[in-house]
């Protein structure tokens, strides 16, 4: 039983990362209808950047994260302006292919700047808590708390602020939002800045919990979309439930079945949900 | 009538060119690349059916090539079946797996399909890498036999023989793709791309047609993979990953999506371009991505689209 609880806690930590990635994807998808496939690679870029600031320039971890967040947000805005905006009125398939091209470019840039070696963001958080036989590394606990706080902040932002209302309005009905005086040219920029910021946070978490290496970002974005399929598109609670379900399933599968095939098991779960609840676990029928 | 003639002349000239090509190539290595490009033509024609005509991006074509390649190789090793039979059966094995993933993902709308196919490509890759008992993992399978008997009529070890074999298959598969597109089914696929809601509204079960397009496109991929396995005599998981599936997408976009000539041009493009970009090894991915983004923004109809536009302009100018 202790072993099961242990794996569930591990699953919640990685699930928290999935939730953050999925939140970024779901806001972009909700507003622009774009499956922003480069999101994972951009997030890893943020992780790499934090690593670089900490080890190369001697920044403190917090400062490094802040600077990476800013750079990431600028990158997100540029991606929207230069790559997605030109195909905004074209068929959706074009935007998706642009997203695939962007993924190759960002992956290439990551390789060019940071090399093939895997990197781990150094932290001083090495204490381990032990509660009734279940061990929780300090870092893992902070990741879970940080993810929860970010989800809370995102929910408050979308629900309570004026900009958040505008975002929801555009997602609901673009034309009506225009008539109500919402500036539909700036909203996508805001959305991309926020979603990239969430992605950078996820990248930092991956980089400090595990490691960043070429190809990790692509794997992560697929997990992010799997979360959306599990939870249902366009809802924050859906992303949270989906992320936790995926994270915990994977951790249990890795712990009790096979770690080499944990992604295969996650895929089987995703296909089963599609078969029996195509609208997702939290989606409306 | 005019355009029909022009198209006919284009294909006739192209065919003659392909037949003469081995005689014009001095460097053996380029002949090798041409064989690979023809194999990619088959895969890209399949990709075009689902991506170009039906309007659904599938990111698993290289994975299907892998299923085709491994199934022909394994059937050959574990039974006495002749090579031509295993090559013929390989696309059907691939179709089975396509049915299994296509059914749940195509019944729901939107981008789910792309994501599920991508995840499926990752699954195929993981299984090929880790199922050592069957696939030998990363080391791969060696000694896959060439078609035909050792002292048969044709010398299959010769690249030129294989080139003509692949050329015939590629021409046949291109013709098959053209037939499908012109059929009622093909017209329905195009209608789905243009307005899926309307297709549903007039009482057509769109998902059946989408599933058909996906399974057929997978069979093209499986066949391409099977031919590849017997050509190289060696396969490992490396070339059946997501990156190669992106190549298939690129081939269709660059060549001209939703055209029959597009995948032919695109396939040669994705096989030969990396060779010319070799000098910029680490920049290759960036350049590749940039080409994909710029092509989608500025010439969404690909090389074929640009060429037909230019020809139409030229034709108007003359009269």
Automatic annotation (TrEMBL), chain A:
CDD domains: TM_PBP1_LivH_like. It is a multi-pass membrane protein. InterPro entries: ABC_transp_permease, BCAA_transport_permease. Signal peptide: none annotated. It is found in: Cell membrane. Keywords: Amino-acid transport, Cell membrane, Membrane, Transmembrane, Transmembrane helix, Transport. GO terms for molecular function: transmembrane transporter activity. The chain crosses the membrane at residues 12-37, 57-83, 95-115, 139-158, 189-213, 225-248, 260-277. Its main location: membrane. One of its GO terms (cellular component) is plasma membrane. GO terms for biological process: amino acid transport. Belongs to the binding-protein-dependent transport system permease family. LivHM subfamily. This is High-affinity branched-chain amino acid transport system permease protein LivH. The gene is livH_8.
Automatic annotation (TrEMBL), chain B:
Keywords: Cell membrane, Membrane, Transmembrane, Transmembrane helix. This is Leucine/isoleucine/valine transporter permease subunit. One of its GO terms (cellular component) is plasma membrane. The chain crosses the membrane at residues 7-25, 31-50, 57-77, 83-100, 112-131, 162-181, 211-229, 249-273, 285-304. CDD domains: TM_PBP1_LivM_like (cd06581). GO terms for molecular function: branched-chain amino acid transmembrane transporter activity. It is a multi-pass membrane protein. It is found in: Cell membrane. It comes from Roseovarius gaetbuli. InterPro entries: ABC_transp_permease (IPR001851), LivM-like (IPR043428). Pfam families: BPD_transp_2 (PF02653).
